[in-house]
Amino acid sequence: MSSTAPDRPDSPRVVCLPGDCIGPEVMAVAQRVLGELAPDAELEEHLFGGAAIRETGDSLPAATLEACRTADAVLKAPIGDPEFDAADVRPEQGMLQLRAELDVYANLRPSRQGDVDLLIVRELVGGLYFGASGVRDDGTAFDTCEYHPSEVERIVRRGFELARARRGKLTSVDKANVLATSRLWRRVVHQLAADYPDVEVEDMLVDNAAMQLASTPEQFDVIVTENMFGDILSDLAAAVTGGLGLAPSASLGDRRPGLFEPVHGSAPDIAGRGIANPAGMLRSTALMLDHGLGRPDEARVLERAVDEALEKAPTPDLGGSSTTAELADAVLLALARG
Fold this sequence. Notes:
- This protein is of the alpha/beta class.
- The chain has two domains: 1-104 and 253-338, Isopropylmalate Dehydrogenase; 113-243, Isopropylmalate Dehydrogenase.
- The chain is 42% helix and 18% strand.
- The chain has eleven helices and twelve strands.
- α1 packs across α9 (279-292), α7 (206-215) runs parallel beside α8 and α9 (279-292) packs antiparallel against α10.
């Protein structure tokens, strides 16, 4: 996957959000690795999620938001804690707010295993999750899905650019046989296709896309889709290529900073036991090196090191017995070997 970072910052500033439960454990591994691969980077930690609620009453404190806005990249560990499951202020609210404030509209979810090498490009700050919602007096609940043509154009164009840099195939996923927003989506895709004659384009309904991902995922190169469809399909793609515990993500806008985070949860059941798998965090760190800091060579080195370490020192979730620290040591050993 080629880098979309506009340039390579000198002495970059990375805001680290350790998050909740296993979050600080896997973030510590990422920071060790960055010490080796980007020793010039300035790493600073800020409160976010449940930890921030305990300290400030807000899942995204103003000081954290300001630090993120002025950073070169934001590296985020998982958030969420059962303590806040029924609370009025929840960690996840801060996550949605941060995405919107940074306008990181393009969520990149790569999935690789064997013959499968695909990239889902999910629109992240519009659609059903950000539309008007509520409960009427008669008890009816509603959620509104809206997209402006400009919102569709910028994410679809990002999909075309990424497909052009990979194998030249773009699959646009929608539900145009039912939804007006999907018919808009499809019109925009075909309008932009004229600008990318070197990219093969196909339309696919979301239900068919789910079936195809489950049965023959190797057919896909880049998939571009709206927010909710992308949320569901990217988890499915992760499941067929090793599981959510290994999956990274990058959320990008048109300017810095990007937001980089593993897609798995905070795993409160294993927090503090030293057995969390940091692979998703480290792969997200590789995406940050590439797309956030403009250092694709270092990103490729880290991706190879993580793959090698998972083979030699798998954690319990992969059927092995290695601890978080042992897998981290295996990654650092692979980095030392180059």
